[in-house]
Amino acid sequence: MLKKVDMQIRKTNVIALDTVEMVLKSTYISQTAVPGQFLHVNVPGHTLRRPISIADVNRETETITILFKTIGSGTKKLASYLPGMKVNALGPCGKGFPIDNEVPSNVLLIGGGIGVPPLYYLGKTLAKKNINMISVLGFQTAINVFYENAFSQFSDTHIVTNDGTYGEAGFVTAVLDKIGDYDRYYACGPLPMLQAITKELDHKSGYISLEERMGCGVGACFACVIPTDDHGGYKKICRDGPVFKAQEVCL
Amino acid sequence: MLKKVDMQIRKTNVIALDTVEMVLKSTYISQTAVPGQFLHVNVPGHTLRRPISIADVNRETETITILFKTIGSGTKKLASYLPGMKVNALGPCGKGFPIDNEVPSNVLLIGGGIGVPPLYYLGKTLAKKNINMISVLGFQTAINVFYENAFSQFSDTHIVTNDGTYGEAGFVTAVLDKIGDYDRYYACGPLPMLQAITKELDHKSGYISLEERMGCGVGACFACVIPTDDHGGYKKICRDGPVFKAQEVCL
Amino acid sequence: MMDLTAQLPGLNLKNPIMPASGCFGFGREYSEFYDLSKLGAIMMKAATGEERLGNKTPRVAETPSGMLNAIGLQNPGVDKIIETEVPFLANYDISLIANIAGSTIKEYEKVASAFNETDKVHALELNISCPNVKKGGIQFGTDPSMAAEVTKVVKKASNLPVYVKLSPNVSDIIAMAKAVEEAGADGLSMINTLTGMQIHLPSKKPIIANKTGGLSGAAIKPVAIRMIYEVKQHVNIPIIGMGGINTADDVLEFLLAGASAVAIGTANFRNPFICTEIIEALPEVLSKYGFQSVQDAVGKGHDIE
Amino acid sequence: MMDLTAQLPGLNLKNPIMPASGCFGFGREYSEFYDLSKLGAIMMKAATGEERLGNKTPRVAETPSGMLNAIGLQNPGVDKIIETEVPFLANYDISLIANIAGSTIKEYEKVASAFNETDKVHALELNISCPNVKKGGIQFGTDPSMAAEVTKVVKKASNLPVYVKLSPNVSDIIAMAKAVEEAGADGLSMINTLTGMQIHLPSKKPIIANKTGGLSGAAIKPVAIRMIYEVKQHVNIPIIGMGGINTADDVLEFLLAGASAVAIGTANFRNPFICTEIIEALPEVLSKYGFQSVQDAVGKGHDIE
Ligand SMILES: Cc1cc2nc3c(=O)[nH]c(=O)nc-3n(C[C@H](O)[C@H](O)[C@H](O)COP(=O)(O)OP(=O)(O)OC[C@H]3O[C@@H](n4cnc5c(N)ncnc54)[C@H](O)[C@@H]3O)c2cc1C
Ligand SMILES: Cc1cc2nc3c(=O)[nH]c(=O)nc-3n(C[C@H](O)[C@H](O)[C@H](O)COP(=O)(O)OP(=O)(O)OC[C@H]3O[C@@H](n4cnc5c(N)ncnc54)[C@H](O)[C@@H]3O)c2cc1C
Ligand SMILES: Cc1cc2nc3c(=O)[nH]c(=O)nc-3n(C[C@H](O)[C@H](O)[C@H](O)COP(=O)(O)O)c2cc1C
Ligand SMILES: Cc1cc2nc3c(=O)[nH]c(=O)nc-3n(C[C@H](O)[C@H](O)[C@H](O)COP(=O)(O)O)c2cc1C
Ligand code: FES
Ligand code: FES
């Protein structure tokens, strides 16, 4: 269940260009969050909260990790916060990646830029189920790359940069036919990436995590809808998502 | 000349109920400010600056002291600032109390509540000229009283509280006929106090310091005008004041 | 004990606080945060004759002390709302206000009369300020005679008190208020959002897919207070005030301006508990400024001549 | 090097930045902070036929991301302005825009023709949005035909290009813009302030002595952008944009919406250097978003069909 929580910042760290890793203490979130869920983070002085994915959870230390890119005034302010200070969030929001007994034994994780974080907690969780994983992580350029080692702990990890300054050159789709076999993919990243992937991998079972500008973050305001295939209706990304079956939504 | 300066907070101290004393480092302001001038203080997140009087200046340490009451969101935020942090201000603003060779040898300082601060720097300055001073300082109630000792250093100091919980009971006007002789008064405080004083002491030479809601603080926006006696015109409190001859303005 | 009650046509409120239409859905999501019975009332999301899918996304954007939205009246249609949402809300001890919208007068009439079928709804809020409701190019919400016309039709169709929700995007708010009062409105609800736009620099396009959106939040509070204050002096029907309320102090400001009850919209997004927190804070704020009750404060910002 | 110039009727600007009328007096105070020649132009404080003393104080109040003001056109009268203020400003290498106001059409005519006596002023900004300028109870600023009338009179009286300053407090900003364009306006200046109010809880009275005041600052930027965007599609005269500009990014947003130059008002109060800082920051912002010049960005937020 969604709660409003105050979390103390335990650690903050710039891990790549304009990319901050923040560790937060929250008993409730650490015990309830599943991979793919997000926090709706309050930034004082701002009318709207900021949705940020849960990138990792540590149930022993009762901490969670978020990773965010400093884009505008909200994330910049958040980045200026120091350990000891408190961050207020609604969470865990939305539905995560389905991690049931049906998960096939070979899966592919595809992350683009700041879409990479939720896949980390997913990968760590799947690793405990002994799932074989391949990760394809795309970034703009070398100084944006993060979490390569982290993903290598549980997966065969391929880094792609748009400009070829690190790993393979091009978009994540450039390497999809060069990697091993898999029966399902999980993807998170910018819309064009998701559009390309769902098209190219339309024969595969896949789950994608979507972004949209949000109001409430809890399903009440209808800001974050996405058209679904069935009866011309919509789903709410904040409540029914952010993870959807690739075939379920029209990108 | 008015400048925009960043000042580092050296010390902050709650000296009475909701009353903060803040010591700020500024070479420029400390070297140029005269008693009665004010700072137009920036409070991040606010559209308008806050006018706060200069309560003391120390040219050796290059610091200035301000005293403010936490009234609304601006002063509350300012009160939360810690030593080491910076405060931006325009200053020194306005014209101060005239301290020329004409100052008579016996003067009266009358301060009401948060109108007391500018009189302190005035008193200290006059003391160096060997002027005899009587101070009448009015507060609402005992826990609001501040700077009694400080004023006692250079003047015969009388404290008045509205409810009589400290010093004399009533308004500052209650003691005006019980004190020694003086040839000029300097007053700062709430409008009703100034109205009562200028009426009661209309036979005396006097200077009063006024407050008004301000926009620019520099004389450009016409927000802070006060009617003057001559030709039905107005003066600007921020630029022509905040100190005026008692007879010069219509309260 | 502070008397927080408020009596308005059809609405017997235990306190003057209700979530504003469109900012609270049909209450389900917020019912997970607190017991909705704590509220005075709920203004439901707009109902139209048929299901509406609304606008393309992005539908919201943040602005200084406010936000823009262009949801586009997405809702499952009035029948579905009566069937599935009203019964859910009827479980709570609150007044229910149905916000009704349409593209034609006929649609308004249909939606209004549909609510006659349920006895769980206590009043209608007639949303004439929705930008895509036009007739002959003029919006119902900006033309006094058209506003009066739709008010009359809805009053006739409905057996419930009707609160007309006024748009602030007008030259003369008093003329609008008087027109709908004369047409039979039982109350006013004001203000709806100010029309605004934000342009996204990287894409060089308006952020909101619909281009323009409605500005809400603290930024518009001075406009809301001004309009309520002005209208209060010219009408004899009660006003439900809204626009940028974030604190119990804000509520008192609306009461002083002339509102008899208030609605809270945008502030729910930052703080899902905002309505209950304000209900709890209100007694102290009222007594701090010398009021014995909510009723006591209504209109007290006006000179008493 | 980035080309910051902007050419508008009567105004040959080295950059598109100017302080907005009423927020910069006649430049004297800010000339102590920086060399006014850095500015593109200055919009002077309103001039009326005779000296005006303005409203009672308080005249300003702070609001969320904005402020209210009701100065009430205080100024020394047009003759004194031409005699003492214009010569001071003529020392600087900038364009001068005189903001003119009045209570009657006759007064507008008088003020406008007075500026024919000096060759130091390059354009007039016709302030028809001042709340105390009425005729038959309707404001010039909210009635298209009356706005057209005063525009015609001023155009006839003056030998300078006339920019009509539009009020945002209208139902139909496009109708206002088209009416004054047809009446001969050389340009538009928009927006003036939104009418608002704030009630002071301790005194239970409006804070502003005049009760209502004009809302300015970041809070109103979305309304300004929307109106400029809409008007741009319906007129062929240039727009000087204003309303809540605080950064060079904001300036670009106004250019994309359709403004050819911009004015900065309220932001001067927090930061007296705001105009020069924005002038310095603008080249980088323009090139960051792929523009070669100011001119290049004007209107680029509109779909190119
Ligand atoms: C479900 C979900 C999960 C996300 N997870 C992450 C994450 O783990 N790390 C990360 O860096 N970013 C993530 N994002 C994107 C993140 O929300 C935005 O980068 C952030 O809101 C930008 O805020 P700002 O104040 O810095 O930018 P501004 O542009 O100043 O924000 C203005 C407004 O736009 C919204 N906004 C701007 N960009 C986005 C966006 N891409 N998606 C949604 N709203 C946006 C803001 O929330 C705010 O309301 C996620 C978004 C969603 C929807
Ligand atoms: C020349 C001058 C000198 C002053 N010196 C001092 C001083 O030394 N110590 C001190 O505590 N106070 C002083 N004041 C009053 C001080 O400016 C206000 O208490 C302060 O601005 C309140 O800000 P706020 O954000 O806490 O209150 P809010 O009520 O939230 O402020 C809202 C707006 O109203 C303005 N405002 C509110 N009260 C006043 C007021 N009394 N005078 C002017 N503007 C006001 C604020 O500046 C702001 O623009 C002085 C005022 C003036 C004009
Ligand atoms: C996301 C959103 C959706 C809204 N939907 C509706 C609606 O369906 N019907 C309506 O009458 N008003 C709607 N409104 C307007 C609000 O009910 C309210 O009048 C306005 O937002 C001002 O109040 P606030 O500043 O507290 O949000 C909506 C506002 C927002 C922010
Ligand atoms: C204190 C103040 C005084 C103003 N005086 C005038 C004026 O005399 N004439 C005028 O046309 N506009 C006047 N305005 C409006 C501004 O010129 C400008 O249109 C408005 O404030 C919006 O811009 P901003 O948000 O950048 O301030 C005034 C605004 C303020 C804040
Ligand atoms: S953000 Fe409100 S419904 Fe998703
Ligand atoms: S505050 Fe602007 S003139 Fe005094």
Notes on the structure:
The complex is a heterotetramer, with 2 copies of chain A (251 residues) and 2 copies of chain C (305 residues). Chain A is of the alpha/beta class. Chain A folds into 2 domains: 3-93, Beta Barrel (Elongation Factor Tu (Ef-tu), domain 3), CATH 2.40.30.10; 106-211, Rossmann fold. Chain A is built from 5 helices and 16 strands. In chain A, the strands form 3 sheets. A 7-stranded antiparallel beta sheet of chain A has the order 4-3-7-1-2-6-5. Chain A has a 7-stranded mixed beta sheet with strand order 11-10-9-8-12-13-16, sandwiched between helices. Chain C has 305 residues and is of the alpha/beta class. Helix content of chain C is 30%, strand content 20%. Chain C has helices at 78-89, 105-114, 144-157, 173-182, 221-232, 248-257, 267-270, 274-288, 294-297, and strands at 6-8, 11-13, 17-19, 41-43, 60-63, 66-69, 95-100, 123-127, 134-135, 138-139, 162-165, 187-190, 194-196, 199-200, 205-206, 213-216, 239-242, 261-264. The mean pLDDT of chain C is 95. The chains are: A alpha/beta (251), C alpha/beta (305). The interface between C and D is large, with 47 and 46 residues. The structure holds flavin-adenine dinucleotide (2 copies), flavin mononucleotide (2 copies) and FE2/S2 (inorganic) cluster (FES) (2 copies). Residues 20-23, 45-46, 69, 71, 99, 127, 165, 192-193, 216-217, 220, 242-245, 264-267 of chain C line the site of one flavin mononucleotide (FMN). Residues 38, 48, 50-53, 67-69, 71-75, 114, 117, 211-214, 242 of chain A line the site of one flavin-adenine dinucleotide. Chains A, B: Residues 2-99 form the FAD-binding FR-type domain. Chains A, B: It comes from Virgibacillus alimentarius. Chains A, B: FAD binds at residues 50-53, 74-75.
